Amino acid sequence: GNSVTQMEGPVTLSEEAFLTINCTYTATGYPSLFWYVQYPGEGLQLLLKATKADDKGSNKGFEATYRKETTSFHLEKGSVQVSDSAVYFCALSDQAGTALIFGKGTTLSVSS
Amino acid sequence: KAGVTQTPRYLIKTRGQQVTLSCSPISGHRSVSWYQQTPGQGLQFLFEYFSETQRNKGNFPGRFSGRQFSNSRSEMNVSTLELGDSALYLCASSLDTGQGGEKLFFGSGTQLSVL
């Protein structure tokens, strides 16, 4: 069945450091891929998405590229801020529905 | 525009009881889905409703059920509660354009504790 594997946290960085959170997936067909973020005390919200191979999703300085050959969707940001501290979830959905399969989540902590 | 609203925010129940959680989607959104979030299992899909019909279902026992009303509001019910049902239950809504890659809008969740 479909699944998502993302790197375990926590990830601890200093402000302005480079961030990579790895995400790989197993799926039949051509899933859409997502990164959702959960800030402390807030609900899950979509950070970025990509719906087909080689698409790059981007938002708030974060980027991720849909790599079908490596079944990956790694999240990157060139310079993190304290306000980026949150839990990040990689997810996939099939073409037909809104059912998302999530990774376990990666906690990011950024210090000044 | 109001977001996804879930009630109640917190709930404490004892084993064997049943519970009903409520979700009001964003106005105009036709699809409502439910997820269970626990520290051990993470986020897991429960079910999805569209036009009052369950369209998709995750791998949960029959004690977990739901429904959607004509105004798209949704409820989920858990009967014969077990300790392992303690979790944050999240509701999400979407426009459902049928094109895939839908953005889900999540509510803040209902934190259920089973004693």
How would you characterize the overall build of this protein?
The complex is a heterodimer of chains A (112) and B (115). Chain A is 0% helix and 51% strand. In chain A, strands 2, 5, 6, 10, 11 and 12 form a 6-stranded mixed β-sheet that branches. A 4-stranded antiparallel β-sheet of chain A has the order 3-9-8-7, with no helix packed on it. In chain A, strand 7 and strand 8 form a beta hairpin. Chain A has 112 residues and is mainly β. Chain B is mainly β and 115 residues long. In chain B, a hairpin with a 3-residue loop joins strand 4 and strand 5. The mean pLDDT of chain B is 93. Chains A and B meet through strand 6, strand 10 and strand 11 of A and strand 4, strand 5, strand 9 and strand 10 of B.
Categorize the overall geometry of chain A: globular
Mean pLDDT of chain A comes to: 93
Distance between the termini of chain B: 37 Å
Number of strands of chain B: 11
Average pLDDT across residues of chain B?
Answer: 93
Helix-and-strand structural type of chain B: mainly beta
**Which series of helices and strands of chain B comes N to C?**
EEEEEEEEEEE
Tell me how many strands of chain A there are: 12
Structural class by SSE content of chain A: mainly beta
Strand content of chain B: over 45%
Helix content of chain B: under 10%
Q: Report the C-alpha radius of gyration of chain A, rounded.
A: 13 Å
Radius of gyration of chain B: 13 Å
Discrete helix count of chain A: 0
Low-confidence stretches of chain B: none
The biggest sheet of chain B amounts to: 7 strands, mixed
List the helices and strands and how they pair.
The complex is a heterodimer of chains A (112) and B (115).
Chain A: E1 3-6, E2 11-14, E3 19-21, E4 23-26, E5 32-38, E6 44-50, E7 56-59, E8 62-65, E9 75-77, E10 86-93, E11 100-102, E12 106-111
Parallel strand pairs in A: 2-12
Antiparallel strand pairs in A: 1-4, 3-9, 5-6, 5-10, 7-8, 8-9, 10-11, 10-12
Chain B: E1 5-7, E2 10-13, E3 19-24, E4 31-38, E5 42-50, E6 53-57, E7 64-68, E8 74-78, E9 87-94, E10 105-106, E11 110-114
Parallel strand pairs in B: 2-11
Antiparallel strand pairs in B: 1-3, 3-8, 4-5, 4-9, 5-6, 7-8, 9-10, 9-11
